[in-house]
Design brief:
26 strands; 38% helix; elongated
Length: 952
């Protein structure tokens, strides 16, 4: 044997186990083309030829015995595979995602030693055995280890192990491990990114110095949020998406308004009205945002902006107004987006086009995990009636909740962990690395567009000052703030990186900062002073003070009959539940002479006639398709196939969509969603129905902060309807009262209407009036107490003439009570079910009631004072006005109507309350006790003797 052959054989003998497979693989590539392998491998093959086991046997399976793979080699390979998978799953535990506050971030889960592996062990394993798609420059297991640690444990890291759809997981893995997620920015783009960071930092610094001690909830520590939003705008405009719907709490809001929404800086400066040197006025021509007449603090306002591309296609950015109740804007924004995506011009369900709008929600780290409305909103993301094609979530993570540490604020490792239950992919990214931050947006946006699902980015930074710049954070977090005080700003960190790479020099960054400050000073100094000593006090729009009589709501009889017949048609082959169809067919003759339409029939005719007028309707609630009390049945189910059919979709006369949905078990989230939908689509009649009226109090924040006050605060107009089942039938404290008193307490400035109607025709006209008001200045929400047991009571049923003539009557005559205005000594006024109970009691009594005049207050707010005044003038011998109600004295309408009624009293007349005494719970739990109480109220109301106050 030649000497060089012997030396080659001796050389190849040093390779065994997994290394043999790697060498064999490389040699096959070498044979195809020497350029296919690394130069070092080419040199080996040139010098030593083919590996000796290939020379002798042609394959590795026949290799010499000392080269055979041992069980130890298999164990090492298995351990290496575990290590690789651990990096993918747990790399985030060691990632460099905290700018401050986490010096030691190491986990044994991603260390080779944990798996019994050394560097030499990893070097002996070919890369392709561990990572099938490994890049060419990754040659062995140790290279794999280092490269994956770079991808999963750098300043950006990923969690997607909880995503159960394999195609999504594979897509994410490929984007991450190919490096495609990482934006490759040119030097010019990096410098532009630095300039953007400098503008954000400079703006906040200018506010800090100029308006000392004023709240602004600065973005400092999270400045990268602005270029992240810039990137979303860039992608959306390139794809000609019509709307970007944004919601965020306070942190960084002013910077987002200034830099993303384009709100003029002088407008923002003017809102800091406690400036010591002058009352600031925006310069002439400075565009602003239309607000309501009472206004709000500067960091609650939203704004809109139109962005045009080169082809003049528009993308509209909307930042929703937001109260201090943080995350409650989330479902509102989702409602905005869905309204923008729905096409409502044809009958049936609206046509959803998710490409029309992208929702973006910016959360606080403490609020995201702490506020239940976040989970309610996330749950909407995949539901047919609420999905918006995926939301981009960003947690503005400043490590603190006001003064509360993470250990006291959440039970999870990360603020983002809630999203795992909804299989939402998560990126954690260091806010000091703006390139990593905008790279996170790239993968998040692409995922949303491909899979139409939510994506979450945990933007980890810090808060340079206290919660609102007025408190001292070092009192509660001294150690953390020592670290923050010593930490350079994000712009300075990024500038240092660019300087090290030679992209900028020493003077470049300083010049950028000086230009920013100079520009802001010029704006500030160019503002005029307000010479008026008193601020201008705005008032509500005049249209809200006008009456609503101008809206005609009657419908011709022939039209109603045609619609009613259409509601009874079924598709060919559809087999409904026999018992139900029998009930529904009874509605066929309700418009005939001598017949009456009950509540369900009247409601169906109201919606059908509104659709005939070309007005789209959206109605949702937990059991709304059927109705909690089985009166509606607007979605029918085939007993053979289970397929559903909505009769309102089959109407030939319908000229708009009818969107009826059973909602999830949610009040705050769904109510906020419907409110947002009504604001974004003012020409749609949006209706939300509570399962029971008192369940609405789980959405109290939406009522208090949005529905009741948004127009006065922000100029935001809604015309939505809330149906709240209400009435005392002995069902206990939780199924009696819709907490009517709370809505009346919030009633002012004609902000909404509160009604409790007692006939199907009254409901018909009221709903049609609400539809007629849509999009007009008079528009406002409607709070409507709806019946339960009365749904099938013929005393609330109405004859055809009541639908075809007249309109809604705020003050209604008590039916079946003969009126003797001359003899009337008592005027009894009440609202809702109790008045129907009284009607029944009078009908069953043989007494003469000519001493009694009774009126039903069907619209409690706005209170029909003029109509009542007119009625009182026709009662010359009136001695007393009695208010009767079934609710306890401290609830219901009494405290609200009391003042109105006292103002109307004439000399010698008295005002008296009849009803339950003051109580802490709305109703008793025992049906027999309820029945006795109700009987006592009715007895006293129709007894001619005055007696005492029933509440005593």
């Amino acid at each position: 044997m030649a000497q060089n052959e012997e030396s080659s054989l001796g050389f190849w003998e040093q390779f065994y186990g997994p290394n043999m497979g790697y060498i064999e693989e490389q040699y096959e590539l070498f044979k195809q083309d020497p350029a296919n392998v690394d130069p070092s491998m080419k040199e080996l093959f040139d010098q030593h030829g083919a590996p000796e086991w290939i020379q002798h046997t042609g394959n590795t399976t026949q290799a010499v015995s000392k080269s055979e793979t041992s069980i130890d080699d298999v164990k090492k390979l298995t351990s290496a595979m575990k290590l690789v998978e651990a990096i993918r799953r747990f790399g985030h535990l060691e990632a460099d995602i905290y700018p401050v506050g986490h010096e030691n971030r190491q986990t044994e889960l991603v260390q080779p030693e944990t798996y019994g592996l050394s560097v030499e062990d990893l070097r002996s394993i070919p890369a392709s055995w561990l990572w099938e798609q490994s890049p060419d420059d990754v040659r062995d297991g140790y290279d794999v280890f280092q490269r994956l640690k770079k991808y999963y444990a750098g300043t950006i890291t990923f969690e997607y192990d909880h995503v159960n759809h394999e195609d999504e997981r594979q897509w994410l893995l490929e984007r991450i491990e190919s490096g495609e997620f990482h934006l490759k920015l040119s030097d010019k783009e990096k410098k532009q990114l630095l300039e953007r960071m400098a503008h954000v930092e400079g703006f906040e610094g200018f506010l800090q110095k100029t308006f000392v001690g004023q709240k602004r909830f600065s973005i400092e520590g999270l400045e990268s949020m602005v270029p992240m939003l810039d990137r979303i705008v860039k992608y959306a405009t390139e794809e000609k998406i019509e709307h970007i719907m944004m919601g965020m709490a306070h942190r960084g809001r002013l910077s987002v308004l200034a830099h993303v929404l384009g709100k003029p800086c002088d407008k923002i400066f003017s809102e800091f009205q406690h400036s010591p040197d002058k009352e600031l006025m925006p310069s002439e021509g400075s565009s602003g945002v239309t607000y309501g007449w009472t206004g709000d603090v500067k960091y609650h306002f939203g704004a809109t902006k139109e962005v045009r591309d080169e082809e003049q296609a528009n993308t509209r950015i909307t930042l929703a107004h937001n109260p201090s109740h943080l995350e409650f804007v989330n479902p509102v924004v989702e409602g905005f987006a869905r309204a923008a995506q729905d096409e409502r011009s044809k009958k049936g369900y609206p046509q959803l086009d998710i490409s029309k709008a992208v929702p973006v929600l910016i959360h606080g780290d403490a609020a995201f995990i702490g506020e239940g409305v976040v989970a309610e909103t996330l749950n909407l993301s995949g539901l047919p009636g609420y999905k918006t094609g995926g939301t981009l979530h960003i947690i503005a993570n400043n490590l603190l909740g006001y003064t509360t540490n993470r250990g006291d604020g959440r039970s999870t490792r990360y603020a983002s962990d809630l999203a795992k239950g909804f299989e939402i992919p998560i990126i954690h990214v260091n806010a000091d690395d703006p390139i990593a931050c905008v790279s996170a947006i790239k993968i998040a946006y692409e995922y949303r567009q491909k899979f139409h699902k939510d994506f979450l980015i945990d933007l980890v930074g810090y808060r340079r000052y206290g919660h609102n710049e007025m408190d001292e954070p070092r009192a509660t977090q001294p150690y953390l703030y020592k670290s923050i005080d010593e930490h350079p700003t994000a712009a300075n960190v990024f500038a240092a990186r660019l300087k090290d790479k030679g992209i900028i020099d020493d003077d470049d960054f300083q010049q950028i900062k000086e230009q920013v400050q100079s520009g802001l000073r010029d704006v500030y100094e160019g503002m005029s002073e307000n010479t008026t000593t008193e601020p201008e006090i705005k008032s509500m729009p005049e249209a809200l003070t006008n009456g609503l009589d101008r809206f005609e709501t009657a419908v011709p009889l022939d039209d109603l009959k045609t619609l009613n017949e259409g509601l009874l048609k079924r598709p060919e082959g559809f087999t409904g539940l026999k018992k139900l169809e029998k009930i529904l067919k009874r509605r066929k003759d309700v418009l005939e002479e001598g017949k009456k339409a009950d509540w369900g029939a009247g409601e169906a005719l109201a919606y059908a006639s509104i659709l005939k007028d070309g007005i789209p309707i959206r109605i949702t609630g937990q059991d709304t398709e059927r109705g909690t009390f089985a009166h509606r049945h607007m979605v029918l189910h085939d007993v053979n196939t289970g397929e559903s059919y909505c009769p309102l979709h089959g109407l030939d006369e319908a000229k708009a969509s009818f969107d009826i949905r059973n909602s999830p078990l949610s009040e705050a989230g769904v109510l906020g969603f419907e409110y947002g939908y009504s604001v974004e689509s003012p020409n749609t009649l949006v209706i939300w129905e509570a399962q029971f009226g008192d369940f609405a109090n789980a959405g109290q924040v939406i009522f208090d902060q949005f529905i009741s006050a948004s127009r006065a605060k922000w100029g935001e107009k809604s015309n939505m309807v809330m149906l709240l089942p209400h009435g005392y039938e002995g069902q206990g404290p939780e199924h009696s009262s819709a907490r009517l008193e709370r809505f009346l307490q919030l009633a002012a400035e004609n902000n909404w209407m509160v009604a409790n109607v007692t006939s199907s025709a009254q409901f018909f006209h009221l709903i049609r009036r609400q539809a007629a008001m849509r999009g007009k200045e008079e528009a406002r929400p409607l709070i409507l107490m709806t019946p339960k047991s009365l749904l099938r009571n013929q005393r609330v049923a109405s004859a055809a003439k009541e639908f075809t003539d007249g309109k809604f009557t705020p003050l209604r005559q008590q039916p079946n009570l003969k009126v003797s205005k001359k003899n009337a000594k008592r005027l009894m006024i009440g609202s809702g079910k109790v008045m129907v109970d009284i009607e029944e009691a009078i009908d069953e009594s043989e007494e003469n009631f000519d001493w009694l005049r009774a009126l039903r207050l069907e619209q409690i707010y706005p209170f029909p004072k003029k109509q009542l005044e007119k009625e009182l003038k026709e009662l010359p011998n009136l001695e007393e006005i009695v208010w009767v109600q079934e609710e306890p004295k401290n609830m219901g309408s009494w405290d609200f109507v009391d003042d109105y009624l006292r103002e109307l009293l004439q000399e010698g007349q008295s005002l008296r309350y009849i009803g339950r005494p003051e109580r802490s719970a709305p109703a008793v739990g025992e049906p027999n006790v309820h029945k006795a109480e109700q009987g006592q109220i009715i007895k006293e109301a129709i007894s001619e003797s005055k007696g005492g106050d029933s509440s005593e």
